[in-house]
Amino acid sequence: MSDIVFEAPPRSGENIENLADAIRKMFGLEDETFFPIVAFVEKGLPHLVEGLVFDILDAQTMGARMGAVNPLTREFLIREDVYDGAVLHQPRHRFTLSHEAGHAVMHIGTLNRMAPSASVATYRDPEWQANRFAAALLMPRGLVRQCKSIEEITRRFGVSKESAELRVKTLKLEINT
What we know:
There is one protein chain. It is built from nine helices and five strands; from the N terminus they run βααβαββααβαααα. The protein is mainly alpha-helical. The protein has a single domain (about 5-140), classed as Arc Repressor Mutant, subunit A. It is globular, with a radius of gyration of 16 Å.
């Protein structure tokens, strides 16, 4: 299955940032630094994506995949250890849940299957889009700009150092590492 290449409708970084900001605002979370991703996936996301089916599967069933969203069946699947980690506020698992939420919001019913050898432009790459969405949802640009250091970002937003550093680079901010 890893040989399958998908292409998403084009989205700019700004478009994805605005989408994440709008979702935070819709749920009254625009000023929250620590985004409640588990509650959002369980209770909020079904209001945004009609017919979404959320399921937690064991590691044996999921294998190496931490999560997956099937754009045709509207299934949002997450591996049990990843879900448990997100509940415990582990940064990597919070990001994974946010990434899959991005697929659910942006890609259900919209992906085109490409030839295995096809090259997909970044702005049409569903993985790039989902990563950008996850970063914007967990670390909204307006709140990140108020931070003075990477350590402050990791602590306030519940993200990894790597995610915080990439976010600062993406937003072209001058923040202490």
